[in-house]
Specification:
mainly beta; about 10% helix
């Protein structure tokens, strides 16, 4: 049943997007961000990194919904867990597909509008064994079926949010107590 409702939302987006682009233009007034809940200053292999994913549409008054991807280096980080905290209509929400360093099409939505600011969920990674690694975990517009963010204000216009990122630096501590710098 959820797949049928999600397919219906895709059809709705297919009709809204051309109208929006023609009549309303594109607005910029939102953010999809990552906030570390763990200390990122001295990571070692085996450590867990926990990141909260937040949205903030407070300055535009809400959104019908949309989707995003999360990209990470799977040679440095392994996905351990995804905790869904998504408010809104569960029939229009979709957990992402994992595709080797790419969480694709994490989607949320609600017919009455989505709250201005909210926690969508938490992603946990394990730092993999490496000598010294530096990588960035990046949020971006979805490349899958999640669709763009759509505003309930301003004639149902598209929203181009700012997408956040977090830099991860892992340092191996050798058995002699010296760090590889």
């Amino acid at each position: 049943m959820q797949s049928a409702r999600f397919a219906f939302l895709q059809v709705v987006f297919a009709f809204i997007i051309p109208i929006t682009l023609t009549w309303a233009g594109i607005t910029q007034a939102a953010e999809v961000s990552l906030t570390p809940t763990t200390d990122m200053s001295s990571l070692k292999p085996g450590d867990q990194i926990e990141l909260n994913i937040h949205i903030d549409f407070s300055d535009i008054g809400g959104t019908l919904g949309g989707g995003f991807d999360l990209v990470f280096d799977s040679s440095v980080l392994a996905l351990s867990n995804i905790t869904d905290s998504t408010p809104g209509d569960p029939d229009f929400s979709r957990m992402p597909d994992e595709r080797g360093g790419h969480l694709e099409s994490w989607s949320v939505g609600a017919w009455q509008g989505f709250p201005g600011a909210a926690l969508l969920g938490t992603v946990t990674f394990e730092v993999l064994p490496t000598i010294r690694s530096e990588t960035t975990i990046q949020l971006q517009a979805t490349s899958g079926m999640g669709g763009p963010w759509v505003s309930l204000q301003d004639n149902v216009s598209l929203i181009q949010p700012d997408y956040g990122s977090v830099k991860v630096i892992s340092v191996t501590v050798f058995s002699d107590g010296f760090e590889d710098l």
